[in-house]
Amino acid sequence: MSTDIFADGFKAEPYWWDAAKPAATLASPLPEATDVAIIGSGYAGLSAALELARHGTAVTVLEAENLGWGASSRNGGMVSGGVNVGKGRAMNDDATRAMLAEASQAYAHLEGIVAREKIECFYQRVGRFVGAHTPGAFEAQSRRVEALNRIAESEAYMVPRERQHEEIASDFYYGGMVVQRAGGVHPALLHKGLLEAAYRAGATLCAGTRVGKVEGAPGAFRVQTSQGEVRAKEVVVASNGYTGDATPWQQRRVIPIASFIIATEELGAETVRALFPKLRMISETKRVLCYYRPSPDGKRIIFGGRARFRQATPQESAPTLHRFLCDRFPQLDGRGLKITHAWTGNVAFTFDKLPHMGRQDGLHYALGCNGSGVVMMTHLGHRTALNILGHANSPSAYEALPMPTVPLYGGNPWFLPIVGGYYKMRDWIDRRRAG
User: Fold this and answer.
1) Which of 114, 177, 238, 382 is the most buried (most CB within 10 A)?
2) What are the residue boundaries of the FAD dependent oxidoreductase domain, all occurrences included (predicted)?
Protein backbone atom coordinates (compact mmCIF):
# COMPACT_ATOMS: atom_id res chain seq x y z
CA MET A 1 0.00 0.00 0.00
CA SER A 2 1.34 3.41 -1.00
CA THR A 3 1.73 5.78 1.93
CA ASP A 4 3.20 8.81 0.16
CA ILE A 5 -0.29 9.94 -0.93
CA PHE A 6 -1.40 10.68 2.63
CA ALA A 7 -1.06 14.26 3.85
CA ASP A 8 0.27 15.12 7.29
CA GLY A 9 -2.64 14.98 9.69
CA PHE A 10 -4.54 12.52 7.48
CA LYS A 11 -7.93 11.50 8.91
CA ALA A 12 -9.63 8.15 8.32
CA GLU A 13 -13.05 9.76 8.66
CA PRO A 14 -15.35 11.88 6.47
CA TYR A 15 -14.17 15.30 5.37
CA TRP A 16 -17.71 16.47 6.12
CA TRP A 17 -17.23 15.72 9.82
CA ASP A 18 -14.78 18.61 10.13
CA ALA A 19 -17.85 20.87 9.98
CA ALA A 20 -20.50 18.65 11.57
CA LYS A 21 -19.44 15.48 13.37
CA PRO A 22 -22.22 13.13 14.49
CA ALA A 23 -22.85 13.58 18.19
CA ALA A 24 -25.40 12.98 20.94
CA THR A 25 -25.76 16.62 22.00
CA LEU A 26 -29.51 16.74 21.24
CA ALA A 27 -30.19 13.23 22.52
CA SER A 28 -32.68 12.39 25.24
CA PRO A 29 -33.27 9.29 27.39
CA LEU A 30 -35.50 6.59 25.93
CA PRO A 31 -39.15 7.23 26.82
CA GLU A 32 -41.43 4.46 28.04
CA ALA A 33 -43.93 5.07 25.25
CA THR A 34 -44.28 7.03 22.02
CA ASP A 35 -46.76 7.29 19.17
CA VAL A 36 -44.17 6.46 16.50
CA ALA A 37 -40.73 4.85 16.89
CA ILE A 38 -38.33 5.38 13.98
CA ILE A 39 -35.31 3.10 13.53
CA GLY A 40 -32.48 5.15 12.02
CA SER A 41 -31.49 8.82 12.29
CA GLY A 42 -30.56 9.44 8.65
CA TYR A 43 -32.38 11.58 6.11
CA ALA A 44 -35.38 9.22 5.88
CA GLY A 45 -35.85 8.86 9.62
CA LEU A 46 -35.41 12.56 10.38
CA SER A 47 -37.67 13.64 7.51
CA ALA A 48 -40.42 11.37 8.84
CA ALA A 49 -39.81 12.57 12.40
CA LEU A 50 -39.92 16.22 11.36
CA GLU A 51 -43.27 15.90 9.58
CA LEU A 52 -44.82 13.83 12.37
CA ALA A 53 -43.62 16.16 15.12
CA ARG A 54 -44.83 19.24 13.24
CA HIS A 55 -48.32 17.74 13.41
CA GLY A 56 -48.21 17.05 17.14
CA THR A 57 -47.34 13.35 17.00
CA ALA A 58 -45.07 11.99 19.73
CA VAL A 59 -42.16 10.54 17.74
CA THR A 60 -38.94 8.92 18.94
CA VAL A 61 -35.89 8.36 16.71
CA LEU A 62 -33.75 5.35 17.70
CA GLU A 63 -30.10 5.44 16.57
CA ALA A 64 -27.57 2.70 17.36
CA GLU A 65 -24.60 5.10 17.11
CA ASN A 66 -24.28 8.87 17.40
CA LEU A 67 -27.02 10.76 15.60
CA GLY A 68 -26.23 10.83 11.87
CA TRP A 69 -23.33 8.39 12.07
CA GLY A 70 -24.36 6.51 8.90
CA ALA A 71 -24.55 7.33 5.20
CA SER A 72 -26.35 10.65 5.65
CA SER A 73 -23.14 12.27 6.90
CA ARG A 74 -20.80 10.20 4.69
CA ASN A 75 -22.22 10.46 1.16
CA GLY A 76 -20.93 12.58 -1.73
CA GLY A 77 -23.55 15.31 -1.30
CA MET A 78 -24.81 15.10 -4.89
CA VAL A 79 -28.46 16.09 -5.41
CA SER A 80 -30.75 15.26 -8.33
CA GLY A 81 -34.33 14.33 -9.06
CA GLY A 82 -34.91 11.34 -11.28
CA VAL A 83 -31.67 10.95 -13.26
CA ASN A 84 -30.96 7.49 -11.86
CA VAL A 85 -34.54 6.35 -11.19
CA GLY A 86 -35.64 3.72 -13.65
CA LYS A 87 -32.17 3.43 -15.12
CA GLY A 88 -32.28 0.56 -17.58
CA ARG A 89 -36.10 0.50 -17.63
CA ALA A 90 -38.28 1.39 -20.61
CA MET A 91 -39.09 5.09 -20.43
CA ASN A 92 -42.57 4.53 -21.87
CA ASP A 93 -43.56 2.27 -18.99
CA ASP A 94 -46.36 3.79 -16.86
CA ALA A 95 -44.70 2.82 -13.57
CA THR A 96 -41.38 4.34 -14.64
CA ARG A 97 -43.06 7.57 -15.70
CA ALA A 98 -44.82 7.79 -12.33
CA MET A 99 -41.54 7.24 -10.48
CA LEU A 100 -39.73 9.86 -12.55
CA ALA A 101 -42.49 12.40 -11.98
CA GLU A 102 -42.44 11.80 -8.23
CA ALA A 103 -38.64 12.00 -8.15
CA SER A 104 -38.96 15.44 -9.71
CA GLN A 105 -41.37 16.44 -6.94
CA ALA A 106 -38.94 14.99 -4.40
CA TYR A 107 -36.21 17.33 -5.63
CA ALA A 108 -38.50 20.33 -5.15
CA HIS A 109 -39.44 18.99 -1.70
CA LEU A 110 -35.79 18.94 -0.60
CA GLU A 111 -35.25 22.50 -1.81
CA GLY A 112 -38.39 23.50 0.09
CA ILE A 113 -37.19 21.98 3.37
CA VAL A 114 -33.78 23.64 3.07
CA ALA A 115 -35.47 27.01 2.53
CA ARG A 116 -38.23 26.58 5.12
CA GLU A 117 -35.94 25.37 7.91
CA LYS A 118 -33.17 27.82 6.91
CA ILE A 119 -30.60 25.02 6.72
CA GLU A 120 -27.11 26.37 5.99
CA CYS A 121 -25.66 23.45 4.02
CA PHE A 122 -24.01 25.01 0.93
CA TYR A 123 -26.84 23.85 -1.32
CA GLN A 124 -26.30 25.06 -4.89
CA ARG A 125 -28.09 24.06 -8.10
CA VAL A 126 -24.86 23.78 -10.13
CA GLY A 127 -25.98 20.87 -12.32
CA ARG A 128 -24.44 17.49 -13.03
CA PHE A 129 -22.37 16.12 -15.91
CA VAL A 130 -22.85 12.38 -16.49
CA GLY A 131 -19.86 11.21 -18.52
CA ALA A 132 -20.40 8.48 -21.13
CA HIS A 133 -17.72 5.80 -20.80
CA THR A 134 -18.29 4.59 -24.38
CA PRO A 135 -19.89 5.94 -27.58
CA GLY A 136 -22.71 3.44 -27.09
CA ALA A 137 -23.37 4.84 -23.61
CA PHE A 138 -23.56 8.32 -25.13
CA GLU A 139 -26.21 7.11 -27.58
CA ALA A 140 -28.16 5.48 -24.74
CA GLN A 141 -28.11 8.76 -22.83
CA SER A 142 -29.33 10.60 -25.92
CA ARG A 143 -32.37 8.36 -26.07
CA ARG A 144 -33.31 9.26 -22.46
CA VAL A 145 -32.98 13.04 -22.60
CA GLU A 146 -36.39 13.85 -24.04
CA ALA A 147 -38.24 11.71 -21.48
CA LEU A 148 -36.16 13.06 -18.57
CA ASN A 149 -37.03 16.61 -19.60
CA ARG A 150 -40.69 15.91 -20.27
CA ILE A 151 -41.42 13.78 -17.19
CA ALA A 152 -38.79 14.71 -14.58
CA GLU A 153 -38.16 18.33 -15.66
CA SER A 154 -34.43 17.55 -15.65
CA GLU A 155 -33.42 20.42 -17.97
CA ALA A 156 -30.97 18.01 -19.59
CA TYR A 157 -28.99 18.22 -22.82
CA MET A 158 -26.23 16.27 -24.52
CA VAL A 159 -22.63 17.45 -24.79
CA PRO A 160 -20.56 15.79 -27.56
CA ARG A 161 -16.98 14.79 -26.92
CA GLU A 162 -15.54 17.72 -28.84
CA ARG A 163 -17.25 20.12 -26.38
CA GLN A 164 -16.59 18.05 -23.28
CA HIS A 165 -13.96 20.45 -21.91
CA GLU A 166 -16.71 23.01 -21.37
CA GLU A 167 -17.85 20.75 -18.53
CA ILE A 168 -14.75 18.93 -17.34
CA ALA A 169 -11.03 19.20 -18.13
CA SER A 170 -10.75 15.51 -18.94
CA ASP A 171 -10.63 13.32 -22.05
CA PHE A 172 -11.78 10.24 -20.12
CA TYR A 173 -15.34 10.30 -21.51
CA TYR A 174 -17.02 10.16 -24.92
CA GLY A 175 -19.18 13.18 -24.23
CA GLY A 176 -22.07 13.03 -21.82
CA MET A 177 -25.30 14.46 -20.50
CA VAL A 178 -25.69 17.66 -18.52
CA VAL A 179 -28.57 17.74 -16.05
CA GLN A 180 -29.15 21.33 -15.02
CA ARG A 181 -31.79 20.53 -12.39
CA ALA A 182 -29.22 19.01 -10.06
CA GLY A 183 -26.77 20.30 -7.52
CA GLY A 184 -24.57 19.77 -4.53
CA VAL A 185 -24.87 20.04 -0.79
CA HIS A 186 -22.72 19.58 2.31
CA PRO A 187 -24.36 16.32 3.44
CA ALA A 188 -23.38 16.48 7.11
CA LEU A 189 -24.60 20.07 7.45
CA LEU A 190 -27.86 19.09 5.72
CA HIS A 191 -28.23 16.26 8.22
CA LYS A 192 -27.43 18.60 11.11
CA GLY A 193 -30.10 21.01 9.87
CA LEU A 194 -32.72 18.26 9.62
CA LEU A 195 -31.75 16.99 13.06
CA GLU A 196 -32.12 20.43 14.62
CA ALA A 197 -35.42 21.01 12.81
CA ALA A 198 -36.84 17.71 14.11
CA TYR A 199 -35.66 18.58 17.63
CA ARG A 200 -37.28 22.04 17.46
CA ALA A 201 -40.52 20.43 16.31
CA GLY A 202 -40.54 18.19 19.38
CA ALA A 203 -39.07 14.86 18.24
CA THR A 204 -37.27 12.75 20.87
CA LEU A 205 -33.81 11.74 19.66
CA CYS A 206 -32.12 8.72 21.23
CA ALA A 207 -28.45 8.08 20.45
CA GLY A 208 -26.63 4.85 21.32
CA THR A 209 -29.95 2.99 21.29
CA ARG A 210 -29.61 -0.15 19.22
CA VAL A 211 -32.83 -1.95 18.37
CA GLY A 212 -32.71 -5.68 19.11
CA LYS A 213 -36.27 -6.85 18.48
CA VAL A 214 -39.66 -5.52 17.45
CA GLU A 215 -42.73 -7.39 18.74
CA GLY A 216 -46.45 -6.79 18.68
CA ALA A 217 -48.79 -5.24 16.13
CA PRO A 218 -49.94 -1.78 15.03
CA GLY A 219 -51.20 0.12 18.03
CA ALA A 220 -49.24 -2.06 20.46
CA PHE A 221 -45.62 -2.55 19.37
CA ARG A 222 -42.88 -3.31 21.89
CA VAL A 223 -39.44 -2.24 20.69
CA GLN A 224 -36.54 -3.81 22.60
CA THR A 225 -33.39 -1.68 22.58
CA SER A 226 -29.99 -1.57 24.26
CA GLN A 227 -31.45 1.12 26.55
CA GLY A 228 -34.63 -0.75 27.43
CA GLU A 229 -38.12 -1.14 25.98
CA VAL A 230 -40.30 1.50 24.36
CA ARG A 231 -43.97 0.98 23.49
CA ALA A 232 -45.11 2.43 20.17
CA LYS A 233 -48.31 2.56 18.13
CA GLU A 234 -46.35 2.65 14.86
CA VAL A 235 -42.79 1.71 13.86
CA VAL A 236 -40.83 3.02 10.86
CA VAL A 237 -37.75 1.18 9.54
CA ALA A 238 -35.40 3.78 8.05
CA SER A 239 -32.03 2.11 8.64
CA ASN A 240 -31.09 1.63 4.96
CA GLY A 241 -27.50 0.36 4.54
CA TYR A 242 -27.34 -0.48 8.25
CA THR A 243 -30.54 -2.53 8.45
CA GLY A 244 -30.06 -5.36 10.93
CA ASP A 245 -31.73 -8.56 12.08
CA ALA A 246 -34.22 -6.72 14.31
CA THR A 247 -36.25 -6.32 11.10
CA PRO A 248 -35.47 -9.51 9.13
CA TRP A 249 -37.98 -8.99 6.29
CA GLN A 250 -36.40 -5.63 5.45
CA GLN A 251 -32.86 -6.93 6.00
CA ARG A 252 -33.40 -9.62 3.33
CA ARG A 253 -34.34 -6.94 0.80
CA VAL A 254 -31.54 -4.43 1.30
CA ILE A 255 -28.00 -4.99 0.01
CA PRO A 256 -25.41 -2.99 1.99
CA ILE A 257 -22.64 -2.05 -0.44
CA ALA A 258 -19.56 -0.23 0.78
CA SER A 259 -18.72 3.01 -1.02
CA PHE A 260 -15.34 4.66 -0.55
CA ILE A 261 -14.53 8.38 -0.73
CA ILE A 262 -11.42 10.55 -0.49
CA ALA A 263 -10.84 14.28 -0.13
CA THR A 264 -7.73 15.83 -1.64
CA GLU A 265 -5.61 18.48 -0.05
CA GLU A 266 -6.50 22.05 -0.96
CA LEU A 267 -5.63 22.63 -4.60
CA GLY A 268 -6.82 26.22 -4.71
CA ALA A 269 -9.98 27.67 -6.23
CA GLU A 270 -8.25 28.47 -9.54
CA THR A 271 -7.03 24.90 -10.06
CA VAL A 272 -10.39 23.39 -9.15
CA ARG A 273 -12.24 25.80 -11.45
CA ALA A 274 -9.90 24.81 -14.28
CA LEU A 275 -10.80 21.13 -13.73
CA PHE A 276 -14.53 21.78 -13.21
CA PRO A 277 -15.26 24.89 -15.34
CA LYS A 278 -18.87 25.14 -14.13
CA LEU A 279 -18.28 23.49 -10.72
CA ARG A 280 -20.69 20.71 -11.65
CA MET A 281 -21.20 17.40 -9.88
CA ILE A 282 -19.74 14.53 -11.96
CA SER A 283 -20.92 10.95 -12.36
CA GLU A 284 -20.58 8.42 -15.17
CA THR A 285 -22.28 5.60 -17.05
CA LYS A 286 -19.94 2.79 -16.03
CA ARG A 287 -21.45 -0.14 -14.15
CA VAL A 288 -18.74 0.23 -11.51
CA LEU A 289 -18.84 3.99 -11.50
CA CYS A 290 -17.02 6.83 -9.83
CA TYR A 291 -18.58 10.11 -8.71
CA TYR A 292 -16.79 13.32 -7.84
CA ARG A 293 -17.15 17.03 -7.32
CA PRO A 294 -15.53 20.19 -6.05
CA SER A 295 -15.76 20.65 -2.30
CA PRO A 296 -18.34 23.25 -1.20
CA ASP A 297 -15.60 25.87 -0.77
CA GLY A 298 -14.26 25.08 -4.27
CA LYS A 299 -10.71 24.39 -3.08
CA ARG A 300 -10.39 20.59 -3.21
CA ILE A 301 -11.88 17.49 -4.88
CA ILE A 302 -14.19 14.96 -3.23
CA PHE A 303 -13.89 11.65 -5.14
CA GLY A 304 -15.82 8.43 -4.51
CA GLY A 305 -16.36 5.01 -6.03
CA ARG A 306 -16.28 1.26 -5.58
CA ALA A 307 -12.64 0.78 -4.68
CA ARG A 308 -13.40 -2.64 -3.20
CA PHE A 309 -16.28 -5.14 -3.23
CA ARG A 310 -15.63 -6.13 0.34
CA GLN A 311 -15.19 -4.23 3.54
CA ALA A 312 -11.83 -2.43 3.65
CA THR A 313 -10.23 0.29 5.71
CA PRO A 314 -10.01 3.83 4.33
CA GLN A 315 -6.23 3.45 4.20
CA GLU A 316 -6.61 0.35 2.00
CA SER A 317 -9.11 1.94 -0.41
CA ALA A 318 -7.52 5.40 -0.72
CA PRO A 319 -4.68 4.46 -3.13
CA THR A 320 -7.17 2.92 -5.57
CA LEU A 321 -9.36 6.03 -5.54
CA HIS A 322 -6.27 8.22 -5.91
CA ARG A 323 -5.39 6.25 -9.06
CA PHE A 324 -8.95 6.53 -10.40
CA LEU A 325 -8.85 10.29 -9.84
CA CYS A 326 -5.57 10.63 -11.75
CA ASP A 327 -6.97 8.43 -14.56
CA ARG A 328 -9.65 11.07 -15.09
CA PHE A 329 -7.34 14.04 -14.50
CA PRO A 330 -3.85 12.99 -15.70
CA GLN A 331 -2.71 16.57 -15.17
CA LEU A 332 -2.85 15.86 -11.42
CA ASP A 333 -0.59 12.82 -11.68
CA GLY A 334 3.03 13.45 -10.87
CA ARG A 335 2.39 16.60 -8.86
CA GLY A 336 2.46 14.77 -5.54
CA LEU A 337 -1.28 15.03 -4.92
CA LYS A 338 -2.06 14.28 -1.29
CA ILE A 339 -5.20 12.98 0.43
CA THR A 340 -6.35 14.56 3.69
CA HIS A 341 -9.40 12.37 4.39
CA ALA A 342 -10.59 8.89 3.36
CA TRP A 343 -13.69 7.11 4.55
CA THR A 344 -16.31 4.50 3.78
CA GLY A 345 -20.01 3.94 4.38
CA ASN A 346 -22.77 1.54 3.39
CA VAL A 347 -25.09 2.38 0.50
CA ALA A 348 -28.47 0.62 0.55
CA PHE A 349 -29.12 -1.07 -2.79
CA THR A 350 -32.14 -3.19 -3.66
CA PHE A 351 -32.47 -6.13 -6.03
CA ASP A 352 -34.57 -4.11 -8.49
CA LYS A 353 -32.35 -0.98 -8.08
CA LEU A 354 -35.31 1.14 -6.98
CA PRO A 355 -36.18 2.97 -3.76
CA HIS A 356 -39.08 1.51 -1.80
CA MET A 357 -41.58 2.50 0.86
CA GLY A 358 -44.50 0.57 2.24
CA ARG A 359 -45.69 -1.57 5.12
CA GLN A 360 -44.97 -5.18 5.99
CA ASP A 361 -46.14 -7.06 9.08
CA GLY A 362 -47.38 -3.73 10.40
CA LEU A 363 -43.97 -2.01 10.09
CA HIS A 364 -43.60 1.01 7.82
CA TYR A 365 -40.34 1.23 5.85
CA ALA A 366 -38.47 3.69 3.63
CA LEU A 367 -35.43 1.93 2.19
CA GLY A 368 -33.11 1.59 -0.78
CA CYS A 369 -31.41 4.85 -1.74
CA ASN A 370 -29.42 3.07 -4.51
CA GLY A 371 -26.89 5.90 -4.48
CA SER A 372 -29.44 8.75 -4.68
CA GLY A 373 -30.40 9.07 -1.04
CA VAL A 374 -30.15 12.81 -0.40
CA VAL A 375 -33.35 13.51 -2.33
CA MET A 376 -35.16 10.18 -2.37
CA MET A 377 -34.75 9.18 1.27
CA THR A 378 -35.75 12.63 2.49
CA HIS A 379 -38.83 12.39 0.28
CA LEU A 380 -39.81 8.82 1.19
CA GLY A 381 -39.43 9.56 4.90
CA HIS A 382 -41.79 12.50 4.43
CA ARG A 383 -44.27 10.36 2.45
CA THR A 384 -44.18 7.67 5.15
CA ALA A 385 -45.10 10.29 7.75
CA LEU A 386 -48.01 11.47 5.59
CA ASN A 387 -49.29 7.88 5.43
CA ILE A 388 -49.16 7.57 9.21
CA LEU A 389 -50.92 10.91 9.64
CA GLY A 390 -53.53 10.01 7.03
CA HIS A 391 -52.58 13.11 5.02
CA ALA A 392 -51.43 11.45 1.80
CA ASN A 393 -53.61 12.51 -1.12
CA SER A 394 -52.57 9.53 -3.24
CA PRO A 395 -50.21 6.53 -2.95
CA SER A 396 -46.55 7.05 -3.72
CA ALA A 397 -45.29 5.43 -6.91
CA TYR A 398 -42.68 3.73 -4.72
CA GLU A 399 -45.10 1.99 -2.36
CA ALA A 400 -46.96 0.12 -5.10
CA LEU A 401 -43.79 -1.83 -5.98
CA PRO A 402 -43.10 -5.36 -4.72
CA MET A 403 -39.75 -5.35 -2.90
CA PRO A 404 -37.89 -8.44 -4.13
CA THR A 405 -35.21 -10.59 -2.58
CA VAL A 406 -33.46 -13.79 -3.68
CA PRO A 407 -33.33 -17.28 -2.14
CA LEU A 408 -30.81 -17.83 0.66
CA TYR A 409 -30.06 -14.10 1.07
CA GLY A 410 -30.16 -12.98 4.70
CA GLY A 411 -28.47 -9.59 4.60
CA ASN A 412 -24.85 -10.66 4.06
CA PRO A 413 -23.88 -9.75 0.46
CA TRP A 414 -21.37 -12.58 0.01
CA PHE A 415 -21.89 -12.43 -3.75
CA LEU A 416 -20.63 -8.86 -4.22
CA PRO A 417 -17.02 -9.75 -5.16
CA ILE A 418 -18.35 -12.10 -7.87
CA VAL A 419 -20.92 -9.65 -9.26
CA GLY A 420 -18.53 -6.72 -8.93
CA GLY A 421 -15.79 -8.58 -10.75
CA TYR A 422 -18.20 -9.39 -13.57
CA TYR A 423 -19.30 -5.75 -13.89
CA LYS A 424 -15.68 -4.56 -13.89
CA MET A 425 -14.90 -7.02 -16.68
CA ARG A 426 -17.89 -5.77 -18.70
CA ASP A 427 -16.74 -2.17 -18.24
CA TRP A 428 -13.20 -3.11 -19.31
CA ILE A 429 -14.47 -4.90 -22.42
CA ASP A 430 -16.67 -1.92 -23.34
CA ARG A 431 -13.75 0.50 -23.02
CA ARG A 432 -11.46 -1.76 -25.06
CA ARG A 433 -14.02 -1.97 -27.84
CA ALA A 434 -14.37 1.80 -27.77
CA GLY A 435 -10.63 2.17 -28.26
Assistant:
1) 238
2) 35-385
